[in-house]
């Protein structure tokens, strides 16, 4: 874990303030109506609902009154989950500016377990310099990497800023950084303040107005209230008792008066001591005050959770960290270790939600693939392509109702067919939750025996996707000795993939910021059909693998010309580079790939035959397509061609590859 927050004890410098409040039941009744209205709004700092149909927005904001419960831990959070008997909804984390990769790895683990990572980072430079752009590159790198994960992440930069610098500089830094992070649709940008300073210190220099950047910059506003009963500071004991709804009421009052009722709120840190958890209701403290008037100390956390739900809060993270970690006084006993605390946490957890509980977060069987096409590519082969189904990990291909193959990509070539024969195909998508219904069928008729439009003929293709540091595809079973294989490996991190298998020739490489494509070629040897071909990447990346195989190309130098280009224009249309063909027996293979959270398919220009198609999932995924014209092109200048994606992207590489006939 990275840097841990240290809860700040301001109880010793203040006196307990009287609070005239409505009875708890009246608050619950009144605020339930507010929560009912607010639940139809999604924060994004605008009050406009995000595009989500389930119980959570894409940024992980509860939409229907759910409350997440989580914790900060110094050890494996699963130890706490084992103690309290359930999965937490939030994992509170703290990192320095140089711990980006470790933070991303931990966020990935949390999302896989159904927890939303709530991450605080220290800025890499001063607030004033960050406000003028010195940290933009760092922020964009972090945002891109977190945005590429398959799930929501909550981010804060320099939480609890009070006393660490000028409030105006901190505010301007937030206004600078928030748009960078919020450009990723799955990142919620959060502002975390102490709370007591803002609402009870009567110090205008640390007021909400001093720090508030504006709701257009904030997805979640959070405070860090603690119960400081029986804690010491500078050798003096304090027995101040605060219920959490004291902070909720003050926060709600500010949100109402400032016009920010549409900004969701949460508690980023909280805790109560072992002594507080053992206090009876209406007990007399050692300094003679009546404490815990609203219930027993053992139920303090449950009351705080219930009040949060009643008043429209969305999440609470408990500070499950021993005092020795931050060199705090030994009586700052925050960890959930006593039976009273464990039982309270269990009770609150049972009432909480997780983003995977909702239809938008829970894993379900994918929908049926759409856009299935079938094209005859010879007397014995038919090529299939389709659009990716969200959440699918594999696809099964059926020919005339019988399964004939499977793939993790969105393309398949069926071989061993009879010439001049019609075949019907359908595809189903699967994941660990189940299998979809079959796609709409598509049919094609193989060409007559011996017919061929050119000596260089498409043989087969294979694709694979991964969100890892390695990816593997299977060489098509139709491959024959002497065929030419062209392999493209694209990554969404800007790092180059390496090919472990021997015998492949690296032909070219093209990069654009955080998108990089490498191309290899190989002449097939006997027995290679069905082999696994794998690539590795130095860091976890979204990977696209596309292999296209052709027969009839010269084995001495099958690729006579190639070119690639990086396209940074934010457009759905991307043009492949032109070539100069040395002869009239060349077939030009074209490959397009883009990085986008929205693209799922490509449309080809007229005269092109789709040979492979592939699309990943999640933020910053890759979508590719490969095609050729099915015939030889005349020698001389060959103009590039334009394919159109179904969404614009400013990160694309395109390739044109000429394969020369041996005849």
Name a few traits of the molecule.
8-stranded parallel β-sheet; about 20% helix; 2 domains; TIM Barrel; single chain; 36 strands; about 675 residues; alpha+beta; 12 helices; 6-stranded antiparallel β-sheet
Overall mean pLDDT:
86
| Main sheet makeup | 8 strands, parallel
- The tally of beta strands, per DSSP, is 36
Q: What's the CATH topology label of the largest domain?
A: TIM Barrel
Topology readout:
Blueprint: H1 24-38, E1 68-73, H2 77-84, E2 90-95, H3 100-113, E3 116-121, H4 127-131, H5 136-147, E4 153-157, H6 167-182, E5 187-193, H7 196-200, H8 208-211, E6 220-223, E7 231-233, E8 236-238, H9 244-258, E9 265-267, H10 274-277, E10 283-284, E11 290-291, H11 300-311, E12 315-320, H12 339-351, E13 370-378, E14 381-387, E15 394-399, E16 402-407, E17 411-414, E18 422-431, E19 434-435, E20 442-445, E21 457-474, E22 484-491, E23 498-499, E24 505-512, E25 515-523, E26 532-551, E27 559-567, E28 571-575, E29 579-581, E30 586-596, E31 602-603, E32 609-615, E33 621-628, E34 636-638, E35 642-649, E36 652-660
Parallel strand pairs: 1-2, 1-12, 2-3, 3-4, 4-5, 5-6, 6-9
Antiparallel strand pairs: 7-8, 10-11, 13-14, 14-17, 15-16, 15-18, 18-19, 18-20, 21-26, 22-25, 22-26, 23-26, 24-25, 27-36, 28-35, 29-34, 30-33, 30-36, 31-35, 32-33
């Amino acid at each position: 874990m990275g840097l841990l927050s240290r809860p700040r004890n301001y109880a010793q410098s203040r006196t307990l303030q009287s609070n005239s409040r409505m009875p708890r039941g009246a608050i619950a009744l009144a605020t339930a109506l507010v929560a009912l209205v607010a639940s139809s709004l999604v924060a994004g700092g605008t009050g406009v609902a995000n595009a989500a149909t389930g119980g959570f927005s894409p940024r992980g904001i509860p939409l229907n009154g759910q409350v997440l419960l989580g914790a900060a831990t110094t050890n494996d959070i699963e130890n706490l989950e084992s103690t309290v008997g359930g999965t937490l909804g939030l994992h509170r984390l703290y990192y320095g500016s140089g711990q980006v990769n470790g933070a991303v790895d931990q966020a990935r683990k949390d999302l896989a377990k159904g927890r939303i990572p709530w991450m605080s980072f220290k800025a890499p430079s001063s607030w004033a310099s960050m406000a003028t752009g010195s940290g933009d590159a760092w922020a964009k790198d972090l945002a891109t990497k977190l945005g590429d994960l398959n799930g929501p992440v909550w981010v804060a930069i320099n939480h609890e800023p009070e006393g660490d610098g000028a409030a105006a500089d901190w505010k301007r830094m937030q206004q600078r950084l928030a748009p960078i992070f919020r450009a990723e649709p799955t990142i919620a940008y959060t502002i975390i303040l102490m709370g007591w300073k803002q609402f009870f210190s009567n110090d205008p220099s640390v007021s909400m107005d001093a720090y508030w950047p504006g709701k257009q910059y904030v997805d979640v506003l959070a405070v860090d209230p603690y119960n400081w009963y029986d804690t010491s500071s500078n050798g003096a004991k304090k027995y101040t008792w605060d219920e959490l709804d004291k902070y909720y009421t003050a926060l709600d009052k500010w949100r109402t008066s400032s016009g920010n009722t549409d900004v969701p709120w949460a508690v980023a840190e909280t805790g109560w001591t072992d002594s507080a958890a053992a206090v009876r209701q209406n007990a007399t403290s050692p300094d003679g005050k009546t404490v815990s008037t609203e219930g027993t100390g053992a139920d303090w956390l449950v009351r705080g959770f219930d009040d949060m739900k009643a008043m429209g809060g969305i999440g609470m993270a408990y500070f499950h960290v021993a005092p020795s970690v931050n060199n705090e006084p030994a009586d700052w006993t925050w960890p959930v270790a006593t039976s009273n605390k464990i039982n309270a946490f269990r009770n609150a957890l049972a009432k909480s939600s997780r983003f995977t509980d909702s239809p938008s977060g829970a894993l379900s069987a994918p929908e049926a693939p759409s856009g299935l096409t079938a094209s005859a590519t010879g007397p014995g082969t038919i090529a299939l392509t389709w659009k990716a189904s969200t959440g699918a990990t594999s696809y099964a291909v059926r020919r005339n109702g019988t399964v004939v193959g499977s793939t993790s990509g969105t393309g398949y070539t069926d071989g061993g067919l009879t010439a001049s024969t019609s075949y019907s195909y359908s595809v189903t998508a699967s994941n660990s939750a189940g299998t979809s219904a079959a796609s709409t069928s598509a049919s094609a008729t193989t060409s007559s025996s011996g017919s061929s439009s050119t000596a260089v003929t498409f043989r087969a293709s294979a694709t694979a996707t991964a969100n890892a540091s390695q990816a593997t595809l299977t060489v098509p079973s139709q491959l024959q000795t002497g065929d030419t294989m062209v392999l493209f490996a694209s990554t969404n991190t800007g790092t180059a993939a390496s090919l472990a298998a021997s015998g492949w020739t690296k032909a070219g490489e093209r990069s654009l910021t955080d998108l990089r494509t490498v191309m290899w070629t190989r002449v097939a040897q006997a027995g290679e059909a069905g082999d696994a071909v794998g690539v590795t990447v130095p860091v976890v990346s979204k990977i696209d693998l596309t292999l296209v195989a052709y027969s009839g190309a010269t084995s001495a130098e099958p690729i006579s010309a190639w070119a690639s280009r990086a396209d940074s224009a934010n457009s759905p249309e991307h043009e492949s580079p032109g070539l100069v063909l040395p002869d009239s027996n060349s077939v030009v293979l074209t490959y397009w790939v883009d990085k986008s959270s929205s693209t799922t398919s490509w449309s080809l220009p007229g005269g092109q035959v789709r040979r492979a198609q592939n699309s990943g999932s999640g933020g910053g995924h890759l979508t590719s397509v490969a095609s050729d014209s099915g015939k030889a092109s005349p020698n001389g200048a060959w103009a590039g061609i334009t394919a159109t994606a179904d969404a614009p992207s400013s990160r694309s590489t395109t390739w044109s590859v000429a394969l020369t006939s041996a005849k």
